[in-house]
Amino acid sequence: MNTWSAFATPWHRSSPFPSPSRSSISEGYRPGYRTVGQPESSDWPLRKDRRYLINPGSVGQPRDGDWRAAFARFDSDAWIVTFYRVPYNVRVAQEKIVAANLPQRLATRLATGR
Predict the structure, then answer these.
(1) Is the pTM here over 0.90, yes or no?
(2) Over the range 21-49, which residues count as b (16 or more CB within 10 Å of their CB) and which as e?
(3) Of 73, 72, 113, 65, nearest to 93 (Cα)?
(4) Distance CA 102, CA 6 (A)
């Protein structure tokens, strides 16, 4: 399985991930996570006759109400994107933000995902 080939060359003609300036978003997919605080994954099968712009989220400073780290992996053999949510030690991250003299709001929002 060549997991990262499409991510490494996202603008290549054979890639399922087009340049945002050359595409329009016609449909959306939001993973159906069932828990908060537990590791989870959600598979999204892709169609080879379509092109996709995929934003799996963020490993820090989430904005969707879910504090867990978010990322995705593309399986280029099976044409499936797997979205992941993984808990991490929010308290330690908050302490590091404060210790770096960054705005307190950045530390506070980690716990709420907003």
Answers:
(1) no
(2) eeeeeeeeeebebeeeeeebebebebeee
(3) 113
(4) 35
